[in-house]
Amino acid sequence: MLNKAVILGTNYYIGLSTIRCLGKHGIHTVAADYSEEERYGALSKHCSEKIIVPHYKREPDKLVEALIEFAGKQKEKPVLIPCHDSYVEVVDEYLPQLKEHYFIPQTEQGLYTRVMNKETLHALAMEKGVKVPETVRLDDADFYQKIESTIGYPCLVKPVDSPTFVARFRRKLFKVHTKEELNEALKKAGDAELEVIVQRIIPGFDDHMYTFDAYLNQDGKVTNWVTCQKFRQYPINFGASVYTIQKHVPEVEKIGTAFLEAIGYKGFAEIEFKKDAETGDFYLIEINARITKFNSMLAKVGMNVPHIKYRELTGNPLPAKGLEKNTNTAFWYSYEDMLAVKAYIQTEQLSARDVLKTYFRPKVYAIWDWKDPKPAISFTKMTLGKILNRPANRKKKLAKQ
User: Fold this and answer.
1) CA distances from 383 to 20, 111, 338, 386 (A)
2) I want to staple 176 with a disulfide (CB 3.0 to 4.6 A). Which of 4, 80, 182, 343 is the partner?
3) Per-residue pLDDT tens for 67-110?
4) Does one domain contain both 140 and 191?
C-alpha cells in the first residue's frame, strides 16, 4: 500500500503493537522516535523504516517541522498515529498544519486535549449526564469542609494534566488518608507547578474497572467497539492494566457510545469506567485518546484499531463490528504483572490461588510474539541491564550526598 503509516513512539509496547497490527497487512510502517535508545518496538520484523525526530517536549515545533518535511518527500499522504499522550498533545496543538500533510481522524482542534484533561473531561461528562466521581477543586469555598463532608478520607489527589504529572512523579495520582497527607500531596503538586483536583474513591476492587474501546468514523459514529474488564493494575489499585480480559458489558457500551458521539469525537478512544461496588453505577474515570496498552488483545479478538484507522482514512473502510460475546481472551504484561501480584499478595488483597486461577485462559502478550521475537529479546536485555546496574547507581547517589 502506497500510504505509509508513521508511528510516533516505539520505545514502548503500544508502538510495537501498532507496528505489528499494520505490518501484518502489508502496510509500510515508519517508526518515529527522538532517540535510538530503548526503541525496541522498531526492531519488529514488521517495521519498514526508522527515522529520528526532535523531542516532543523539548522541541515540539521542530518535531512538527520534521514530520511535515518527511511527509513532503512521500508519494502519497501518510497516516499519523501517536502512541503516547504527549505525542497526542503535540498533534492536537498543531492539528491544522499536520492535517495538510497527514491523514488524522480528529477534525476539532483541542478536543483530544480536553478529554485527556481531568478538569475539562469532568465538565463534559456532567454536561452529557455521565456519572463522574465527586470532585473538590482547590479554589472551592470551604475546601477542607467539602473534603470531609463530600469526599471523605481516603481520597485521591489527581492531576489535571496526567502526562506531565506522570513524568514528574512516576505515578498517576496521590492517595491520601488524612488532612496532613492531603496537604503534603498538594504541596508536592504546587512545588511542581501542577494543577490537581481531589476526588472520592469509588468503592470496589481493581476488577471493578472496565473499558469501552471504540473507533468513531468521520461522521462521528461508533463503528467498531469492544468492552473489557481489568483484573490487575500496576501500580496496584491506581495504575495501568497488566492483566485485562475481553468481556461483553452492554451497559458500558451504551454509556460509552452515547457520550463519545455526543461530544463529536472521531478516531479511537478508550473510556475507563469504575463500577461502584455498592450501587452498581458506572463512573467515568478517564479517557485515553491514543492506542491502548492492550491493543494486541483487541486485535486478537477482532478489533485491529490501527488497521481500522488506516483503512478508513485512506478511503477503504473495514466493516463495522461490535463484539457482543465473551471470548475469554486476556491481555498479559507479564513483567509488571509479577510486580503487581507481589504487591497484591503482600497487602492481602489477593491470594496466590486467586492469581493462579486467572491464568487459565487464552492470552495475548504485551511484547512477546513467537513469530516476531527481536523486540522481546531486546526488552529483556534492557530490563536486566537496569536491574543489574541498580546497586552501582545507588552507590553513586550515596557518594554524591
Assistant:
1) 22, 36, 14, 5
2) 182
3) 999 999 999 999 999 999 999 999 999 999 999 999 999 999 99
4) yes
Distance CA 86, CA 5 (A): 19
Q: 306: closest CA among 27, 45, 112, 87?
A: 27
Nearest to 8 by CA among 51, 65, 68: 51
| CA within 13 Å, CB half, 172 | 15
CATH number at residue 152: 3.30.1490
Do 314 and 212 belong together in one domain? yes
277 Cβ contact list (under 8 Å, min separation 6): 203, 204, 205, 208
In the structure grid, which three cell numbers stand for residue 9, read together?
Answer: 513512539
Give me the CATH number covering residue 293: 3.30.470.20
Question: Which cell is 337 given?
Answer: 504483572
pLDDT digits 0-9 by tens, 163-188 = 888 888 988 899 999 999 999 999 99
The total of other beta-carbon atoms located within 10 Å of residue 185's CB is 20
Domain residues for the domain of 164 are 134-200
> In terms of residues, how long is the chain?
401
> Is 376 a domain residue?
no
Grid coordinates in use for 36?
Answer: 535510538
195: left (phi over 0), alpha (psi -120 to 50) or beta: beta
What H or E segment, with its residue span, contains residue 25? none
Mean pLDDT of 231-250: 95
| 269 neighbors 282 (Cβ within 8 angstroms) | no
CATH number of domain containing 17: 3.40.50.720
Q: Please give, one letter per residue, the 3-state secondary structure of 240-290.
A: EEEEEEECCCHHHHHHHHHHHHHCCCCEEEEEEEEECCCCCCEEEEEEECC
What distance in Å separates the CA atoms of residue 219 and residue 176, rounded to the nearest whole number? 43
